[in-house]
Amino acid sequence: MQYSTIRVSDLKQFRHVQKLAYDCVEYTAASLRTGMTERNACSIMKTWLKEKGVSDLFHDPFAWFGDRAAFKGFWADHKFLPSDRILEDGMTGILDIAPIVNGYSADIGYCFVHGRNPSMQATLDDMNRLLLRARDEILAGVRAGRTFRAIYREVDDMIADAGYVNQHKRYPHRVLGHRVGRHMSNPLNRVRWLGFGLPTYLSLMTRQWASKVTPGIVHSPLWNDRRESNHRPFAGLWAIEPHISLRDQSIGTKWEEILVITEDGAWWLDNDTPHCRLGTQRGWWHESSQSAAQVFLEESSDFLVVG
Q1: Adjacent-strand bridge partners of 64
Q2: Model confidence, pTM
């Protein structure tokens, strides 16, 4: 993965891929039928993307239904892979997809309720309201120059104070987020490991372990609450994915989207995302900061954003 200079023309491409990914999961959620499995959901996502001309993925599609969306029983990394869990009427689910188009990648997450379940929807609404507050706090923390580790812990405190449980700690290396960038075509990416192309996985893990050994010298591509993230935010594009559950892990929810960090500022790539639209429609959330797409819209395509 390349984290080189990013120009306005690149931002437009990343935004395009992110929107494509959201369109994919919204289509998939609407297409799911009671009795389908997580594997069926992932097949729908892959087929939809293939029909749109997408042939490469940063990671394979993930789908988690019911308490699996809260990572209940996830004692090893292979548990993240799609299973034969059956979707029931009124059940919650999470879809996570990461397409690559012309080398540009995005990684998004989307939560939904299948069918009609007012009680479940009300609970999920309360949880998603908190996650939109976390979205604002993450941006404020980056803009204030607080360390990645400090921001992570502040988000954890917010989650705990609201009576929920942080589940992003269950992701490999406890990530709240990770870098995204441009990908070079590599036939070895056909070899998959835990849902990732082998070269991509090895590149991420090599830098991650190097950052643990030499923090401050090698920057980690992952954002967690450990010493390798005890540094001020550095420029680049980051896929942020706060993930929470009820205490009993019966329900889980998340969103995931790209955060743009420059030498002198930070913006979410786009405020026109499903979770932001829902928050606006329900009156939970109001746009208080422009997106990177809005800020740089009038600049020339060659204008340097990062680098």
Answers
A1: 94
A2: 0.94
